[in-house]
Write a structure and sequence with these properties.
By secondary structure, the chain is of the alpha/beta class. The protein folds into two domains: 149 residues, Murein tetrapeptidase LD-carboxypeptidase, N-terminal domain (Rossmann fold, 3-Layer(aba) Sandwich); 136 residues, Glucose Oxidase, domain 1. Helices cover 30% and strands 20% of the residues. An eight-stranded mixed sheet has the order 6-14-13-8-9-10-11-7. Helix 7 packs parallel to helix 8 and helix 8 packs parallel to helix 9. The longest helix is centred in the first third of the chain and has 13 residues. The protein is globular and about 50 Å long. It starts with 14 loop residues before the first strand and ends in a 6-residue tail after the last strand.
């Protein structure tokens, strides 16, 4: 697995499009997020259907075709420098086969930011476009709006990525050691759900796999990890970084589960890297070559996330 194409960093006045590929977006949170982006001297534009609601499925921010059209139009607009997701929830998987990937590839690289349900799009952008993406806070996300650390780390990644080339864990190594590879991953349940779908990544070989999730019982996490193991998807992975597991159970129970399911891989496994569904979530680039030092609790990027 090699590093992917890095988009250009943002500068003052850059135009960023906000899209809603997944769940409904509260208008007051969207407006607050736009204010943050304007405070960074960005020019945010809201896609036409961001505040839509699906007619019969309350968990979706509008019809699939409209959400897909918003994403594709934003991506293919030469005046747009970055595409930021408004929030997660559920629905991104429903868009993947509706997008014109040839047209999006022809539009060239640009910054893409999101996490949680957006994992499905991170995977698609990596496999279909060969592009580095940012697993980070979203424009209308509660934790982003209320936390200065999450805002500042995303801002630094967008504007001065050379200043955030190392991410430091707050935890101890589950399995010690050092490893090099290309970062990938996201929400565990979404990665498991991607198995067997058209254009899915064949596996994590050569990668540093970043995993997190929210509000999943330990047995459900066990099921997802076991599915990845049985499918051979974890064969050849170089290392594993664990993010946040808010609402997933007691820490000691989760630690035992991760050791049971991941300890046999024979690769370093480190916890508490501060990305995902947590307060003060950090931004982690996917698709860049990096070194994991589980003993020191560091992930060091070979190059800045953005050019």
């Amino acid at each position: 697995m090699n590093g992917l194409t890095r988009p250009a960093r943002l500068g003052p006045g850059a135009r960023v499009a906000v899209v809603a590929p997944s769940g409904p977006v509260p208008e007051e949170r969207l407006q607050a997020g736009l204010d943050v982006l304007r405070g960074w001297d960005l020019d945010p534009v809201v896609a036409p259907h961001v505040l839509d609601r699906h007619g019969t499925l309350d968990h979706l921010a509008g019809d699939d075709a409209d959400r897909a059209a918003d994403l594709q139009a934003a991506w293919c607009d030469p005046a747009v420098d970055a595409v930021l997701c408004a929030r997660g929830g559920y629905g991104a998987q429903r868009l993947v086969d509706l997008l014109d990937w040839d047209a999006m590839r022809a539009a060239g690289p640009k910054v893409f930011v999101g996490f949680s349900d957006i994992t499905a799009l991170h995977e698609a952008f990596a496999v279909r476009l060969g592009l580095v993406t940012l697993h980070g806070p979203m424009a209308a996300g509660v934790d982003f709006l209320k936390n200065a650390r999450a805002q500042e780390h995303l801002r630094a990644t967008l504007f001065a990525p050379e200043t955030v080339r190392q991410i430091v864990s707050d935890g101890t190594p589950l399995v010690p050691g050092r490893a090099q590879g290309v970062t990938l991953g996201g929400c565990l349940s979404l990665l498991a759900a991607e198995l067997g779908t058209p254009g899915a990544r064949p596996g994590a070989r050569g990668g540093l796999l970043c995993l997190e999730d929210v509000a999943e019982e330990p047995y459900r996490l066990d099921r997802c990890l076991t599915q990845l193991l049985r499918a051979g998807w974890l064969e050849g992975v170089q290392g594993v970084l664990l993010g946040s597991w808010v609402g997933c159970g007691p820490a000691d129970q989760l630690r035992a589960l991760f050791l049971d399911r991941l300890g046999g891989l024979g690769v370093p496994v480190a916890e508490d890297f501060g990305f995902g569904h947590c307060v003060a979530a950090l931004t982690v680039p996917f698709g860049v070559t990096a070194e994991l030092d589980a003993d020191a609790g560091t992930l060091t990027l070979d190059q800045p996330a953005l050019r």
